[in-house]
Each structure stands twice: as structure tokens, then as C-alpha cells.
Specification:
The chain is an alpha+beta fold and 108 residues long. It has one domain (19-106): Winged helix-like DNA-binding domain superfamily/Winged helix DNA-binding domain (Arc Repressor Mutant, subunit A, Orthogonal Bundle), CATH 1.10.10. It contains six helices and three strands; from the N terminus they run αααβααββα. It has helices at 13-16, 19-29, 34-42, 50-57, 61-73, 92-106, and strands spanning 48-49, 77-82, 85-90. α2 crosses α6. One of its GO terms (molecular function) is DNA-binding transcription factor activity. Keywords: DNA-binding, Transcription, Transcription regulation. This is Transcriptional regulator.
């Protein structure tokens, strides 16, 4: 078997991949679902309750709750319960980390 390095300039990405890259990739993967990006954009204007997010997105409450759970588990949004309503807001420090992670993963 011929194991020559191709002349096309490919690199061994595995050698540069570490646990920090893995965590960054996991964080960035949250953005693969367009509804989650929409939620993060909606929350730029401040705190909203689930019903307001549901109304704005036009999708069923169970799907809104699923997306909010994923965002909350990744630390991108915070929840605050007030009576029977749950209000969500962005965690700006974590949003900044997300933007940095995307930049680092895709930079030269």
C-alpha cells in the first residue's frame, strides 16, 4: 500500500484536534437548527416568556421547549420562573464564547 503524503497540501487535522476543539464544536453545533438561531435573535431584545417565543416562531410549544432546553443545557440562555410562566434571556458571556469558538474553529 502506498502511504505517500498527497502533494495537494492536505493537513492532518487530527493532530491539531483536542478536547477544547471538541467542546467548541459541540457549542457551535447548537446553531445547526435554524429555530435556535431565531430564538437567540429574538432574545436580543430582552427577556421573553415561552408563550411569546412560541407566538413569534409560529411552532408548537413542545418544539419551542425542546429548543430552549438545548440552549439552556449549553448555557446560552437562562430561565427564570415567575408563577406559571418561564421567562428566558440570553447569557451574553456564553454568546460571546460561542462567537469566539466559531471564529477559532474556522480560522487559519
Amino acid at each position: 500500500m502506498d502511504e505517500r503524503v498527497p502533494a495537494c497540501g492536505t493537513q492532518n487535522i487530527v493532530a491539531d484536534w483536542n478536547s477544547e476543539c471538541e467542546e467548541q464544536a459541540k457549542l457551535v453545533s447548537v446553531l445547526l437548527e435554524p429555530q435556535r438561531i431565531k430564538v437567540l435573535r429574538l432574545l436580543r431584545g430582552g427577556e421573553l416568556c415561552v408563550c411569546e417565543i412560541e407566538r413569534s416562531l409560529g411552532i408548537p410549544q413542545n418544539l419551542v421547549s425542546h429548543h430552549l432546553r438545548v440552549l439552556r443545557e449549553m448555557g446560552l440562555v437562562a430561565a427564570r420562573k415567575e408563577g406559571q410562566f418561564v421567562h428566558y434571556s440570553r447569557v451574553e458571556d456564553r454568546i460571546h464564547e460561542l462567537m469566539q469558538a466559531l471564529k477559532e474553529l474556522l480560522s487559519n
